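Researcher: First entry.
Model:
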Amino acid sequence: MKTTGSISGILKNLKPAHPNDDSEKYAALKRVLDQAFERASKGKGAEHHSFGEQFENQFILRGARRFGLGALQFQIAKKNEQICKTQDPQAKINEFLDIINYAAAAVILLEERARQTIPK
């Protein structure tokens, strides 16, 4: 058997296609979400905020647990204002990626509250 291409490509071809698999339709979304992840885990977020901690133990969530969901909503609003003020397309992209990460932190906080692991 001739093996050309990447391992992930080969493995993808070995898996039976699910008849309702829409993952390729959402490839652009996955690419952007991956960029947001990279920004948080290896970019600005890691450089300024992680201190080697798990995401859910970083200040982004510790602060939200202490000050509430509004803390994350404020950060999203602040990023939105910064987007409106800059003309640099890459800076705008970076701010939107940061918004995605603040929104993800909000989802984590709400999920924690739903599991009643922290006081509401």
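Researcher: Second entry.
Model:
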Amino acid sequence: MFERIQVVAPGAVQSYSAKSALFTASASDQGTFYESTGTFTITLSTTGMSAGWSAWFRTVSGTQTFDPSGAVTINGAATYAVSNAGDVVLVVFDGTNFQVSHTQRPSTVAITGGTINGTAIGGTTAAAGAFTTLTASGLFTLPVATGTHTISSTTASTSGTTGALTVAGGVGIAGKLHVATASDDGPRFQVLGEANTYAAGVYGNSTSGQSFGLRIEAGTNSSDLAFRVRNQADTLTRFDVRGDGVVSIPTGIASTNTTTGALVVTGGVGVSGSLFAVGIEATTLSVTSTGTSSFTTAGRANVAGQLLFTADSSFIGNNNAHIYREATDGLVFAGYNGATNAISLYNNLGQNVFSVPVGTRSLSLSSTTASTSTTTGALIVAGGLGLAGAFNAGGLSTISVNSASALFVATSTATSGAAAGAFLATACDDGAAMASGDRLGGIFLRGARDASSTMTNAAGILAYATEAWGAAASGARLSIEVCAAGSVTRTEVARFQMSATAAETALFIYDVDNATLERVTVGAADSGGVGFKVLRIPN
């Protein structure tokens, strides 16, 4: 009796299988030829596998990764990947680990030694038996099919003869040139010119239509620099154009005339927006604005002639607003004749300080700052203040450093007579008639009771309404109040109020015994002696 023994040489093909997803190649798959489509993992199981086991694997598309089970390796690594379409590999088990013993890549041919001078290696397009890529030591790649040439060298260029690519002659580029960013902050594109020559030039070339020159694009942040001009020593910046459109000339060259300064313009300059300058000197300055501010100066403006502001047809005279100086009148404002202000002054916060309404000679102060001393308030006058007309105030406070001086003087220059004289008049008017008990006003006499200027109204003369006021009724009383010794609270000690009752006077006085005001009455005729009446108050 004889036993048949089947001997399979490594690499012999016994079966075929097409795969498109994860699978496991095991001992029973000896001699199988796999064709794989897609990207997935091929697990290599060593269970029951003997040394000499082998299988073929061909990549149709995608990437297949071989992953031996356990701690077994493949070609000395944990995994092995195949990704080139058409690659065919032979995987062999040596009893311990897997080895890739044969790799066929028909799409490329690796030349590792010898010479190919004079050898035909293909045409401009890939063909059967021809090279599709020529690689020189990993630095230069020339794919014949696409025409894309790659230089992998990272050698930096510091002159015209250094770098990954050096060209002794000129370079013509019909398409676009892109220069990528680098790790340093130096210029990405550098041209070194010869003495007395231009380093670089950008020229438009068009015989019809428009021809554009240099175009620079940068980010829109203020820190994105689109264009910069530096001195030859690279120590000073002369000119900057930022990505947000701001142009800066940081040189500190002063201007003393029209041909000196950091920026010299032979012709005119048109500015459609705002213009801010420490000083402006011009033969002719024309300002036209559609906004609220046409010309603003933080310093001094010297005008040898007339300063003219062009406006609309609502202006007085020749439809213009004038500011000019006359020998007799000083500074003259010929203002607006509409429903607004002739002159308005604003502070740096855009708040109105004062204005002169049109058609009047009034001065309006918009500030609501309260006055607590001679140096506070909406209007502060260092000297005296003369008023020829009436003076109306929500409150009046006067301070004098000379105790002998009169703090408030009212003088009437009208012809003396029974209806003449100087008056101090106060008024209370909230838009409604006075009601009984409403205070009309008064005078307080006050003083400081400590070093912190805490004030006490120690005495006062006050007036109150005694009935509801109307066209034929304005009853009132006058009270006198004082603080007693040892007190900071005023007490009414006297009152004047008319009475229609017989024997009653208009006088009330404070009765200390009863701690109340009592009306003073009169006794019978001759009760105080012949020809006199007794004044009396209740017990």
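Model: Note on the second entry: Residues 339-381 form one domain.
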